[in-house]
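Dear support,

I submitted the protein below through the web form. The confirmation email said the job was done, but the results page showed an empty box. After a refresh the structure appeared. I'm attaching both so you can tell me whether what I see now is the final result or a partial one.
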Amino acid sequence: MYATNYHRASSVQDALALKSSTDETKYLSGGMTLIATMKQRLAAPSDLVDLRHVADMKGITVSGRSVHLGAGTTHYDVSASAALKSVCPAICHLASHIGDPHVRHMGTIGGSVANNDPAADYPAALLALDAVIVTDRRQISAAEFFTGLFETALEEDEIVTAVTFEAPEKAGYSKFANPASRYAMTGVFVAKGAGGVRVAVTGAGADGVFRHAGLEQALSANWSPEAVAGVTVDSSNLMADIHASAEYRANLVKVMAKRAVAAA
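What the results page shows now:
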C-alpha cells in the first residue's frame, strides 16, 4: 500500500474544501472497495477524505411512504431500521445480505452507490424503486445516475449525500451470491407501485445494472412467480466470467425474479 494522507471531514463543505486543496484525492465512505484496491497497489491517492463522520449524511427518515437515507448510513443500519422495514422490508433484506458483518458495519449506501460495482446490490434496488440520488449540488434519478460499469453521472468532486424514494406497494429482492465475496452473481429487485411494475437486475449485465422490460410486462399482467416462466432473457448482453456463463446468468435472472416476487 502506498503512503497516503488521511483527513476526517466534519461537514460536506469541509470535505469539498479538503479535496480541492490537494491533488489526487479520493473520498472515503466505508472503503470496502477503495481500501482493498489501495492494498493491492492498484490505486494510489495522495489523500483520503473520510465522509463517514459527517453527521448530516447519516440516518434514516421515513415520513408516510417517503424514505430518506443519508449517504453515510451503514448497511447494518439500513437492515436494522424498524421504520424502514415497516414500509419497504425488501431493502432491509437486501442490506442484511451484503458481504459479512464487518462489511455491513463499515460500508455505506453512499459509498456503494457512488462506486457502482456491477455486482453490487443497491443499484438494482434504487433503479427498481425509481429512487433519486441527492448530491451536494443536485438531484439525479437512478435511471440517469448509473451509466455503466463503475461509472455514474457524478461530476468531479461531487458528493452523494442522500438517497430518497417513495416506498412501493410491494417489493422483493433475491440474489444468487458468490459464496466467497457475497456479491451478486445475479440479483433481481422487483417493485410494484402507483407507477407500475419495475424490475432491475444486477450482477449480470455486461454494462452494469439494467431494467428488464419483458419481466416488467409479464408481471404487470400477472403479479406472480408463475408469470416469469414465459419470459425470454437474452444472454447476448450478459456477463460471462469464471463464475458463470452468460447463458447461466440468463437462467438465474428468471430464477431470482421468481424468488423476488414470491418474497414480495
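Response: this is the final, complete result; the empty box was a page-load delay. Residues 246-263 form the longest helix (18 residues).
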